[in-house]
Amino acid sequence: MRSSSAPSDGRHWGVTLLAASGSLDRSAIAAYDPKKDASIIAEITAVRDDDREEKRFRLDRATEIRVYALGEGTGRSMDDFGWIEDAKARKTVWEMTYRSTDHAGGASKNRRFDGTITLAAGEYILKYETDGSHSFGDWNADPPDDPEAWGITLFRKIPR
Length: 160
Prior knowledge:
mainly beta; nine-stranded antiparallel beta sheet
């Protein structure tokens, strides 16, 4: 849900953390930095129009992976999407398809895959490509609920 205008007191825009005890060790709090997230195996995010990016990654053993991908899909096909290739065989081992996604908020063409896959040990290439419209920073319709994640991120699944 988005607000249409900023609050009258701009200092209170966003989230405020208050200590229940009345005292707080400020060094115990820091802004979330996705680059420091140790569970991220590989990511391609904030992808712009007419782009094609790839990142190589290696798994030393079979690994359960959470795939979080946002893209554009219309007419039951994907226009902005990601996939994973086996680097040695050059074969696709996972692909973001329209049928495997659900609505990602905003315009109906915003699609999301948020699921788990298992990959064997080996070398892989994470790939993502976009067409010429509706991408991060240049939306031609309402953006998804998580616009900064436009692209694909692989997380090492942490056991519960």
